[in-house]
Amino acid sequence: MSVTTASKLRVPASVNALRNIVLFLMKSPTSLFGLAVLALLILVAIFAPLIATHDPYAQDLANTLQAPGNGHLFGTDELGRDIFSRLVWGSRITLTIIFLVSIVVGPIGLAVGAASGYLGGRFDTVMMRITDIFLSFPSLILSLAFVAALGPSLNNAIIAIALTSWPPIARLARAEAMTFRNADYIAAARLQGASPTRIIVKSIVPMCLPSVLIRLTLNMATVILTAAGLGFLGLGAQPPLPEWGAMIATGRRYMLDSWWLVTFPGVAILCVSLAFNLLGDGLRDALDPKQMNRR
Amino acid sequence: MTVSVETRNLSITFGHGPTALKVLPDISFLVEPGECFGLVGESGSGKSTVLRCISMLTDFWKGEILINGKSVRDMPLIERCRTLQMVFQDPYGSLHPRQSVRTVLSEPLRIHKLTNHEERMQKVLSDVGLPGSFLDRFPHQLSGGQRQRVAIARALILEPSLLLLDEPTSALDVSVQAEILNLLQRLREEHGFTYIMVTHDLAVVDHMCDRFAVMLRGEITEILPREAIPGCEAVHPYSRELIGASLEYEGHV
């Protein structure tokens, strides 16, 4: 009986924590904006077929470079495709990139950082020299080199971005882990016979997680910009995919007389990366351990 | 089961080469089964280091530490964990801030593949005088005294025979100190633990310990029975000074 009541009590605890974080974020206008834009992005991506007014790939060569209005909310591009619909479908690509990069980068950075911070010694030295090597490249240039070697495609862009964005997270996690490795609760875990793996997973990682999450959220803005940059250079998503950076790249040629070709994708990139930055800032306050007592 | 602890020529050096620092030159003492043995001395005299050596948290010492005649070095990890446990000084730092009491207590049970988790956790919580409902609390929802009780529960859950107490009350206020000391006293009577207790408070020694060692710069100057405190029967000048100062302080209070 006591087991069932206990499990009933425990499930809402994590749900509660999540709700508290969201409530906390909603209190400040800037992180509320971030949250709202992110929610909008996700909704748009999910309901893209319903929201888009046209087929994003349908060309209409009689109606190229139409100004906004006349049945095309944001106008049409050089092949007569509806820009609004392309932006809506492009949100899926953006979200995919963010999601894939984050689920690759987060665990790798966290694992490398927590392990080298806790274990120290030779393992730490080797791991940190590897991250040093990655950190000493400018990330866009390294992504460029990777994409150039692997061939331009969206997946390769994602791999390239992931390869260049795990080292800062590993560094962060390592710094955090090093402050906890000598804590009494780690000593207590060792006295209970916990293996190093167990200590890293159960004790070190939960302590590093908040700052890694914050860093990851702030990182997403950079990821969007890098992806857009690679798309702009023609090394990311390939035509006819409606990737925002690639849209700007093709629109650049018509920029002077058809401003809507670059403006709307540009505003979309700006809004989303700003939203992630603001959300990351808000999360930093929400996940601050000093505020734990208030919950 | 009660165990005896014997250390023979325990020595430890931190660092290498010219900067090496010999913290414990040569420590030997014997703790009888079921005894409460105190280690007193000023800050930096190596009291806590002795405990960390016995518990193998620091493992590069030389010499011998025997528990019931068996070297701690040769004990398999699982057996060592179930023989000795430690209670730390600062209850605010010794509990994982993101783990509930349930996680803290069930983790060792899982590591040692023990059964009846719920039953054991309830028993150990009632042993330290906390209600069973505390299982779902987090450290920041507990007071200092309650935290230290949880830390003691964590040490007890593997049913060890030797408890190493590293100033278990010095971070607590006076009324809570007495509660925790009485709790430790009661647990020892019920379970027949052997205690090795580090403290710098002679009143605590007088209350808890059968014998105590006075440490000065890593060396044991003298091992005295508790009865030596009131009359200041120490021989070594430093021990006399320490006990004298303590008696004088208490006289004033």
Automatic annotation (TrEMBL), chain A:
Alphabetic keyword roster: Cell membrane, Membrane, Peptide transport, Protein transport, Transmembrane, Transmembrane helix, Transport
Cell location: Cell membrane
Superkingdom assignment: Bacteria
Assigned GO CC terms: plasma membrane
Domain ABC transmembrane type-1: 91-280
Predominant place of localization: membrane
Record carries keyword Zinc: no
GO biological process: peptide transport; protein transport; transmembrane transport
SUPFAM superfamilies: MetI-like
Transmembrane stretches, start-end: 32-52, 93-121, 133-151, 157-173, 212-238, 258-280
Keyword Transmembrane helix: yes
Bilayer topology term: Multi-pass membrane protein
CDD domains from the UniProt entry: TM_PBP2 (cd06261)
The family this protein is said to belong to: Belongs to the binding-protein-dependent transport system permease family.
Entry protein name: Peptide/nickel transport system permease protein
Species per Swiss-Prot/TrEMBL record: Aliirhizobium cellulosilyticum
Lineage: Bacteria, Pseudomonadati, Pseudomonadota, Alphaproteobacteria, Hyphomicrobiales
TrEMBL record, chain B:
Superkingdom classification of source: Bacteria
Presence of keyword Protease: no
CDD domains reported in the protein's UniProt record: ABC_NikE_OppD_transporters
Phylogenetic classification of the source organism: Bacteria, Pseudomonadati, Pseudomonadota, Alphaproteobacteria, Hyphomicrobiales
Family per similarity comment: Belongs to the ABC transporter superfamily.
GO biological process, one term: transmembrane transport
Name by which UniProt lists this protein: Peptide/nickel transport system ATP-binding protein
A GO term, aspect molecular function: ATP hydrolysis activity
Domain ABC transporter span(s) in chain numbering: 5-242
Keyword annotations: ATP-binding, Nucleotide-binding, Transport
Family matches, as SUPFAM superfamilies: P-loop containing nucleoside triphosphate hydrolases
